[in-house]
Automatic annotation (TrEMBL):
EC number: 3.4.21.89
Membrane topology value: Single-pass type II membrane protein
Organism of origin: Geomonas limicola
Protein name per its UniProtKB record: Signal peptidase I
InterPro entries: LexA/Signal_pep-like_sf (IPR036286), Pept_S26A_signal_pept_1 (IPR000223), Pept_S26A_signal_pept_1_CS (IPR019758), Pept_S26A_signal_pept_1_Lys-AS (IPR019757), Peptidase_S26 (IPR019533)
Gene name per UniProt: lepB
Catalytic activity: Cleavage of hydrophobic, N-terminal signal or leader sequences from secreted and periplasmic proteins
One GO term of the biological process aspect: signal peptide processing
Keywords, alphabetical: Hydrolase, Membrane, Protease, Transmembrane, Transmembrane helix
Transmembrane segments: 29-48
Amino acid sequence: MEDLKNVANENETEKAPKPVQGKHIVREYAESICIAILLALVIRTFIVQAFKIPSGSMEDTLAIGDHILVNKFIYGAKLPFSTTRIVKLRDPRQGDVIVFEYPEDPSKDFIKRVVGVPGDTVEVKHKRVYVNGKLYANPHEIHKESEEIPKEANPRDNKDAVVVPPNSYFVMGDNRDRSYDSRFWGFVGKDAIKGLAFIKYWSWDKDRFRVRFGSIGKLID
């Protein structure tokens, strides 16, 4: 009888569930967190990245407080620590709203509209932009100041014709009178472009302390 009891006790011991060790749970959480971080880095580097609009240089297309998403693969996603781009769909075109590293301080990101592509001749006369001798009529362009500044003072309203070099772009803000852009500091190199702005996913008006619901989900054109 004692032998049978011992066998029964051994069987019950074998069938009893083993306690889950705490370190296994910690390991699972750590692996999940690492995978999530890795996926976030891949998405941010190669697919899409979020940006916030800090200034009014692109009004009224983009307002201060708009949060936007930028397509990073359309012009070719840049490999980290390299100028090599992969999976390019097309080059930037006139009218594209792009995010790029500010040429005079690459640690800052700027957002402007492409006006001239490689080989184009761009000229500004009396606040009007001419590309290859033809008026570039951008429906998003606005002027908030009636005063015209002479060319001798600064190139905001009058700039001599320039030819856009290879692998470079001439960009301007839609808020033409209040934008610091290619008229002042020159061209944007292709390697400095981060992507194409394509949609607003959030917008906060800090002056009125309210959400701009009409802007959320609005495509950027």
